[in-house]
Amino acid sequence: MPRRLLIALLFTTLPALAAEPVRLERDTSGATAAGTTFVAPAGWSQHRRGDAVVLKAPEAGSWIALIDVDAKDASDAAAKAWSAVDPAMQRERTTATPLGDKDGWREQRVFAYATSPDERRSVSARVMRYGERWSVRLADLAHAVSGKREAQIALVFDELLPKGHVRETFAGRRAHALDAARLEALDAFVAQARTTLDVPGVSVGVVQNGKVVFARGFGVREHGKPQKVDADTLYLIASNTKSLTTLMLGKLVDEGVLTWDTSVRKVLPAFRLADAETADKVLVRHLLCACTGLPRHDLEWILGPADATPALTLEILGRMTPTSKFGEMYQYSNPIAAAAGLVGGHSAYPSLELGAAYDRVMATRVFKPLRMTRTTLDFDRATRGNYARPYAFDVDGNLAPVAMAQNTPIRNVRPAGGAWSNVNDLLRYVQMELAQGMLPNGRRYISAGALAARQAEQVRTGKHSWYGMGLDVDARWGTPMVYHGGRLRGYRTNMAWFPEHGVGVVVLTNADNGNVLMDALPRRVAELMFDGEPEAQSAVEAAAETAKNAFAARRRTLTLPADAAVVATLAPRYRNEVLGTIAVTTLDDGRHAFDFGAWRAPLASRRNPDGSTTVVAVAAGWSPELLADTRDGKRTLTIRDQQHEYVYVEVD
Hints:
Largest sheet: 8 strands, antiparallel
CATH architecture of the largest domain: 3-Layer(aba) Sandwich
Distance between the termini: 66 Å
Helix content: 25-40%
Number of helices: 18
Radius of gyration: 25 Å
Strand order of the largest sheet: 2-5-6-7-11-10-9-8
Strand content: 25-35%
Shape: globular
Number of strands: 31
CATH superfamily of the largest domain: DD-peptidase/beta-lactamase superfamily
């Protein structure tokens, strides 16, 4: 069956909205009373409540409501929406986040509302104007639901379109040559964006039709110092490493060392999951597909033992249990992606330690043949000479250096995110992808089949997008864009290419506030290729305002230094059997701090709406929040991600 016909069948239209909830068997198109269109996810229930459409998650208590209102401004629109859908809602609004103009929407705002940690949920309103009318999307979602159903929730948000609006498409259009004038416009965009976002350094590269047409740096390696970034400057590329790891696996498939359908336990007998049935199903192709049902599980390597090795990946996996059915939905998870590299390394070099084997197979199958001469997995080598230091905003919204110790734990799961690279090296990789496995010298590096298998759909991430093996594919603009982004403390990076047009782009930044450029830079290149609507600049401006507002709003909730009465209730030392130890220490300036072993951060405190107390380790890059309490007569600190909870208990 042709792919377009198959997709059309997947997205059917519900003929009429019922007053009682109707469970949806497949992703289903619909419209609000005023004609705003949307797609509701499979497995959710849908019904009408007055003028609102309510979508209920399969898990009780989580829902999204869509409604159109007449209002004087965004705040008024949100208030009228809550009054219509949940008039008893009395939560305090904590932030108002602007979003850029997109898909016909103007004056977009996201309002967040106060919750307490033990509620384990988020409450928000997204408000957007089209003409004189406002559309509002209300959401009251448990963290476990938003973590597990990330792609389904994004489907609702991404496909919300004004009545009669036709999304911009580049289908059937021929890309312009990126000539001097268009590259000058790109240059100006990056330069202005870097200043607007307060990013110390940005390096950008573009290829078209097999040639590098743009490769340069903007700004500096280190804030306040003169050394410039350039196309050779190294950045920690984080999850972009996954694309390189799955490329390595493709090389091993070509060599006959393994196949995409080889059982992982056959290749690496030490591979285990807490759920044995799921472990038995995992093939090589599933390690980087985000489709096994395994959730994010990052705290165990971020706060893991300081002396850990890549074997920690297997320990973590042995404790992991799926939270959705195998192949049912997209769930991004770093430990199982890290296992992909361990499988490849062990298959090629079974006598070496797991980390050393991975390093060797990447050097021999990827870095050397692609002439990625500066790319490395060695932090010590990378952080000598021409590399970009990481930055983020501190608790007061000022640019501050990120302690590299926050990033070094990635070494233990490095196939998922531990590579350092630069624009010149990554452009060689992108050129090879666009050339379908051929090198500039005319030699074939990898078979077209092994290369293409990585882009094939493994699990859907949206109406027009899917995840392959370590690669995202998004066709919402009518022409596929293949990409993968990377985020670690103080680094935001992306590489993307348009296979139908022979154009690829790399963007590397050394600040968390460069996050928007991961999407805005490829978008700006697309605008220049196709004379597209100017959305990229709006996204950058909105992101700059968002950062300023978000830090100001968060700062208002914190007592810094931490309230003395709160500090007095803390135990000197806590321990969790999986995560290890936290000590409460005193810094040279007299402030109290949490000592996580590899790094320390001063303490702030916050009184939550329910009267509980959160203690925050305030550090640029990451400020973990821990709920202070007692259990069974012992003082505790609780840290959570969306689907897991870890309790530290006081120890002598």
